[in-house]
Specification:
It is a single chain. By secondary structure, this protein is of the alpha/beta class. It has one domain (3-227): Vaccinia Virus protein VP39 (Rossmann fold, 3-Layer(aba) Sandwich). It is 47% helix and 21% strand. The chain has nine helices and seven strands. The protein has helices spanning 3-17, 19-25, 29-50, 58-70, 73-83, 102-108, 121-134, 167-176, 190-197, and strands at 90-94, 113-118, 139-143, 154-160, 177-187, 206-212, 221-227. The protein has a seven-stranded mixed sheet with strand order 3-2-1-4-5-7-6.
Length: 230
Amino acid sequence: MDGKNILSDGIDILCKSDEEIKNLIAPRREKITALLNNYIKEIELFNSAYGLVGANDTNELIIKHILDSLAPLGVIIKLIKSIRAENTPQIADAGSGAGLPGIPLAIALPQCDFTLIERMGRRAGFLFNTKAVLSLSNINIEENELEKTQSGRFNLVTFRAFKPLEPKLLKTLFKICAPRGVIAAYKGRREKIEAEMSPLEKNCKNWEIIPCTTPFLEEERHLLVIQPPD
C-alpha cells in the first residue's frame, strides 16, 4: 500500500472510531489530506539533513508520526471544549522538533492557534519553512528553550517524544498553562506512564491516562492528561 492510501485509510479509521473526529474532519477532508501530504513531503525532503524523525520509509513516517499525532484528536477536541477559552484557544507544542504533533493538529484544528516551541535552530528553521510552504496562518514558531518561552500562557500544552516528566519540567509546564489549562502528553505503555508519574504524585494530583489507538500501529499508545494545581 502506498503512502497516500495509508494516510487516507488511517484517517477513515480515526473518523469511524470517534464521532468528534468525524465531525471535525469530514467537511474539510480533501484540504486536510492535501496539507498532510505536503507536510510529509517536506519532512522527507529535509529529514536526512536535519534528523527530524526516525522512519525507514514513507509508510512508517505516516503511521508512527502523522497518524500517531492525530490518534488522540477526539480527546483533544473534548479537552478544548472543556477549557472554555474566552478567545481563540491557545495551544503550545513543547519541544516541537519536526512539528509533531503540533502541525497535524493545527491542520485539523484551524479554529485554534498553535505555538511550536523548539530550541534547535535547524529544526526551528524547518518549522518556519513548513509554515510558509503550507500557508498555515494559525501557527507561530518560537525558537527557544521551553523554560524561557516568551509566548505567554496556553490553554493546552502538548508534547510528544520530548522528555520524561520530572519535577522541574512539570513545574515549567504548569507555569506556562493558563488558568484552567491542561497538559496533554503523548505516551506509550500504561505501565511505564504509571512508573513515571509515581514519584510526581506530591507535585501533581489530578492526572488521567487515556488509551489511544493509532491506525496500523501495533503498539500501546496513551494520552497522559494532567490538570495543573489551582
